[in-house]
Structures are given as structure tokens and as C-alpha cells.
Amino acid sequence: MRPHASLSLLSTLLLLPISILADSTGFTGEVESDGVKFNFKELKQHSVVVEFKETNPMHKTTYTINPLGKIEWDKDTHKDDQCPDGTQVCMVTRAWHDDKPDEHAASVIATADISEESKPEYSTMRDADRKLIGLNVTLHGPAQGEKKKKQVTIIHFLCDKMTGNEEPDKDGKGENALSFISYEDDQVLTLEWKTGHACEEGAPLPPTDSNGSWGFFTWFILIAFMAVAAYLIFGSWLNYNKYGARGWDLLPHSDTLRDLPYLIKDFLRRAVNTFQGTGGRGGYSAI
């Protein structure tokens, strides 16, 4: 069976992967990517249940993840209804008949484990304004199914400080912070986890691209320079063709420009005299 899921709102976000790091010790909740440190140590094992009513009979799949290591199974869980020991992400599908589940699971797939071959990959996510919005974690699992496809689990840890209850309910509903996105090609599982632990106060922004857009001040200086240059070129051309001017006289308002240093000097002298006053006589002058 291959579950199908609707598109997530996450697909509308601009995801900017900044750096990818491999960690041979596995995903244990503490991550540093792109110079930003994340700590998911307070997160607990999570499960979310998704119904697939288009199948006959209806199926429900439970997706379970332990962000701190291998999944801890209840003692009452039958061995045929759980993934092997060392599994970090597991999906268990059970058929339902007349609102009652079958005694045992129809399929059990380990999509990520903590073996030495499973090296997690991390990449920070930023929006269009380059603000940090979370962390992408890619986990790897063993080969599954008849085609022996290597399993991959992608978890979008999204910064959400408003999420209050991060504990799942019995059916994976309510304010469950973990949600199922898709399971594609019987190989790639994508989950989304909204949590305040994916936020980072004062996270440094990566260096901006030197080929990026210019700021307002840069554009203002450039436009002003081009306007002055166009004025001088056009004025010089006009003086040359209309009056036959040469040399300094080519420039528009050449007399004003020639006298500009003296005008500035005179202005500064008058300003200094104004601030210094006319002396210490209390404002009286001799008759």
C-alpha cells in the first residue's frame, strides 16, 4: 500500500538550505548547522495517526519518531506490530473493518534507524528575508519492500513559539505538533514538527550575496551622479554649439562654478563671525 497526502502549506514557503552537515553519532537532539545551535532534548517520542479512507478496507498508519534515539515500544505491543530494535522512525499500517482494527499490522516499515550507516544530514531553513524558520533533518533507514528501497525520512522542524501542547493524543489529533506530509515512491517519508525548540534568538544571518540587490542609498547616489553627469554633458554640448564656448566656459554656469570656492570661503567667514559675535561690550557700540 502506498499512502497519498495532500500538499502541505510548507510547500509555499521559500526554503533556503544553507549548509549540510553529517554526523556519525546519529541524531540525538543536539544539532549545530550554519553556525546555529539547536537543542531538541526536551522533545519526547511522538506519534501521529493518519487515515487513508480511499483504500478498501480503510487503513490507518501510525508514524512514530523518537528525536533522541531509538523508539521505546510499549511492553504490550506485539513484536509483529513494531519495528526492529534501533529504529528511530517507524510507520505501522493497520487495516480497519467495521470501525475495528485487525489484530495485527498489515505492514511495518522502519524508515530511519540509528545504525552507523545512517548518518543524519542537517540544513537550516530561512524565508525570503533570510530569517531563520527552522531546521531540516534527513535520516536514513534500511532497505524495505520487495524492491529493497533504502528508506529516507525528512523532518521539517519549524519554529513555532505559539504551539502549546507538543504531546500527541491517542489518535494523533488535536494540538499535535507532529504532522504527516507525504510518503513518496514507497521510500521517502516527510514529516513536519512545529516546536519552539526550532527557534533561535539572535541567530546570525549568513553572508549576503555580493550580486544581490542594492540598497536605497546606493541607488540614490547612483541616480544623483548620473543626473549631474547628464546635466554637465548636455550643458557643455549646448554651450559649444550655441555660443562656441571653449575650455572652462563649456561648463554650464561656468561663472558660478569659477567663483564657487570664493563664495564658500565668504560664507564660512560670515558664519564664523556670526557665532563669535562682535565682541564683549554687551551689545553697545561707540558713538
From TrEMBL:
The answer to whether keyword Mitochondrion applies is yes
Which Gene3D superfamilies does this UniProt record tie to the protein? Mannose-6-phosphate receptor binding domain (2.70.130.10)
What Pfam families does the entry give?
ATG27
Which residue ranges does UniProt annotate as crossing the membrane?
A: 214-234
UniProt keywords (A-Z) are: Autophagy, Cytoplasmic vesicle, Disulfide bond, Golgi apparatus, Membrane, Mitochondrion, Protein transport, Signal, Transmembrane, Transmembrane helix, Transport
Membrane topology is: Single-pass type I membrane protein; Single-pass membrane protein
Q: What is its main location?
A: membrane
Record InterPro entries: Autophagy-rel_prot_27, Man6P_isomerase_rcpt-bd_dom_sf, MRH_dom
Extract the signal peptide range: 1-22
Q: Which residues form the MRH domain?
A: 23-201
Q: Which superkingdom does the taxonomy of this entry point to? A: Eukaryota
Q: List GO terms (cellular component aspect).
A: cytoplasmic vesicle membrane; Golgi membrane; mitochondrial membrane; phagophore assembly site membrane
Record flagged with keyword Transmembrane helix:
yes
Where in or outside the cell it occurs: the entry states:
Cytoplasmic vesicle membrane; Golgi apparatus membrane; Mitochondrion membrane; Preautophagosomal structure membrane
Q: Give the GO biological process terms.
A: autophagy; protein transport
What family is reported? Belongs to the ATG27 family.
This chain belongs to the protein called: Autophagy-related protein 27
Species source reads Orbilia ellipsospora
